[in-house]
Amino acid sequence: MKIKKSGFTLIELLVVITIISMLAGQILPSLSTAREKGRQANCVNNLHQIGLAIEMYYQDYDDYPTWLSILCKGASGIGMNYLGTGKIFLCLTDLNKGNKGHGNPSFPEICDIPLTKVTNSYPSYSPSAFDQNAYTYRNPSVESCSYSYEFAPTHCKWFESSRNPTEIAQADSNSDGVVTWKEAKMWQSMHGYGGQVPIVRCFWHYYNHKQKVLNLAFRDYNVFISDPEWESSSY
Ligand SMILES: [Zn+2]
Known about the structure:
Strand content: 5-15%
Number of strands: 4
Bound molecules: zinc ion
Order of helices and strands: HHHEHHHEHEEH
Distance between the termini: 75 Å
């Protein structure tokens, strides 16, 4: 007479484990995507808040802030109270938590973090390319920022190298012989790109997850997505 089996045999157990792990494999990647979607939503919210603060600053001073960091007040006393906390400057997708700038190694000179951190982060970039004077106009209490500020007062060398002398003269609004990032962006907004010119950008979704770049548009402060080269790929 056979003894009736109870419980599972080893084979049955292995089959069950295999099925469970196959199911888990299908569920887990979508879970991490859901988390990244949440981080992206947080970044969009940050960009909206920064947009509101920029507009408030503009209403009060009839100009754009020199750097994003001056939108909040720090221990140094420099800066304004348009943004209560510097946390708004941190994108959750940024694995460096804003300590290495905005994540686009091509343009370290528009990182809104202390200059010492920028040179350490990008050793291949010549420090002489940085405008020490321009960095004195940022708020030193803000030590980390995940976003690039496209209206920074730093020298915009790529504009000068990609445009003709007439265009460079048009862009150099104060005729000091140097086109800053702000002047370059103002020129673009007047020559065919309109409000779609980005004023603030987050590259971290691109560099950490190969997603599109999130941009805050100049003038209407809409958030739009693009490739790193926004001029040819805005949505
Ligand atoms: Zn982001």
